[in-house]
Amino acid sequence: MFSIKYNFKKHLDKKGFKVFSLIERNETLREYYYLAGKKLNEKTSQVEHDFNHAQRTALISRKLVEEFASLQISYEQVEQGLCTEKETNLTIFVAALLHDVGNAIARHNHAQNGAFLVKEVVGPILKKYYPKKHVLLETMVLSHIMRHQFEGPLKPKDLAATIVALSDKLDVTHHRAEVGARDFINLVTNSVLEINLETKNGKLVVKIKIKNIIGTYRVRKIIGTVKKLPPKYSRIIEIRSNLVH
To answer: The CATH number of 5-243 is which of 2.40.50, 2.30.30, 3.40.1000, 1.10.3210?
Structure first.
């Protein structure tokens, strides 16, 4: 399976790049994704929740990191002096990559289950490379993962968690649909041609291109996700859709 690690190099320090590389190729974590994909495909009509989805989500998180930086919005953890920008980026990229491993246990409460599985693998890696900050960075990764699904009170509360949650919800183009599937969710997902991000007039603009009216369902779902984000971030995100005939 191909690696996406070099897409993140400029956003990480040397240790962070090493950590991300180790986590991306970790066989245990990849096995969790294999099991998750197999379990969901057997039991329900679902779009992909496999390692391909994980990698796309991580790549979207990188793009969001870049766009929010261009808006000159800082991470709360950096403003509080807890960690650096690149250390915070690492927690975002790792959480985005691993947000769905909990599906290997069950779809229900998969965010919390995923945090448990991730802790066992990622914790020792962070401890080796960040001996003075590993507890903080691990806590941030687990918190991002637990908050990505908006379950109960566990919703994104800061910029880093917002980026992880939004990255997941934006990986809904036709690339994620199961080939040949005719259930509603896959038909909706297949109708989304592409999603692009840009900053304009002080806002993050999410441009969604759909090929038929069914795609408006996915547009409404993304709008709903944005409304659940912290107000200081949701108010600067603008959703635009375009029906392509």
So the answer is: 1.10.3210
Element holding 236 (H helix, E strand): none
Contact 61/167 with Cβ under 8 angstroms?
yes
pLDDT tens sequence across 101-142: 998 888 888 888 999 999 999 999 999 999 999 999 999 999
Which residues have C-beta within 8 Å of that of residue 174, sequence separation ≥ 6? 189, 190, 191, 192, 193
Identify residue 143 by its one-letter amino acid code.
S
Domain edges within the chain: 5-243
> CB of 61 within 8 A of CB of 132?
no
Q: Give the position of tokens 């993304």.
A: 222
Other Cβ atoms closer than 10 A to 98: 29
pTM of the complete model: 0.94
Torsion of CA 64, 53, 134, 5, to 10 degrees: -80
pLDDT at residue 44 tops 60 = no
- Using CA atoms, how far apart are residues 10 and 25, in angstroms rounded to an integer? 19
